[in-house]
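Quick question, first post here. What does this chain look like in 3D?
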Amino acid sequence: MELAIKAVGDNGKVQKIITFVTVSSASLTLVLSVSFAYLTKRPEFLCRQHNDLNSDFQPCEYTDNLCSSKFEIEKDPSRSVDNFAYSFDLYCSKSFYVPMLSTLFFFGGILGCVLLSAVPDKFGRQKIFKILMILSCILHINLLFTFGPLHLVVVHFLCGIASFAYGMSSVIVSEYSPRNIAGIVMSITNAVYPLTGIAVGLYFMFVNNWRLLFLITTAIHIVVTYLVLKYFVESPRWLNSQKKTEECLATLRIIAEINGRVKEWEDFQNNNQHLLQGDKGKGGNTEVSKTFSIFQIITFKSQRKNFILNTFVWFAAGFCFYGIILNLGHMGGDFFADSILAFTGEISSE
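> Answer (accepted):
Ran it through. Tokens below.
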């Protein structure tokens, strides 16, 4: 299979587009997660005593008392972040929506991983990735036209599920990218998460318009989804592992056409028929075709300890970062500086 992939080009147009799509989707499918602190930061307020018509509204700090009938409050547009909390009044009686939004996104992410982790191995990489990117694109359009907090709740949960496209990145990189740069591509893909957080922080610092943000990300998402639909072919390695020889050959032909290596592919095909057909009936296809579920892994003594340890480390790291994101607005100091520093620190962990 490695020789066949080299014949059609292992670093051609197809691989470059898929690399771009993988890195871009890592950012786009997680944009809600990395921008959560900015999108839900409570507005700054002006207040005065209730019915004290002779007094002007003055800047004031948010407290529980501020929501009581003793005070009249107004949002201060000059000091506030133009975000979900500002547009949909996610404070006082609606403040419970803020933790709900982040919790549902992460819960959707967990649910997506549990329910979808085995699906690409069963049905292939192409179909699942295309479905996830189309879903994520539709959800970004929904965010652009969000009309209320309940709408946000539903979209956050579904975006969490769609973020499984980011979870597929390691599989896509390992099977589609050239072996000599796969590690570099994976490092870039991982680093895109905090880099997106920094970019969003700088955006709100200087532009401060959440609908324009989602207009930009939606436009990028449409382009990326178009590239996915046009160029994202099924993994020849997966097809070969499933012993789908004819589909594998057809896919290799498509890659050769896009990469401009049809002649090289035809020469290779003519000289290596026995390899391409896998020596049917003689055990020629030696790639492993059996897959295991997450629950079967713990039945293997050699894998159980590693699986439990890695699961704990990932959960602990993710939970800590989740807590930091939730509390960025309450750390004191400059909000944007704190947020950007938090994401900068995340780069080193990648």
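DSSP finds 20 helices and three strands in the chain.
The longest helix spans residues 301-326.
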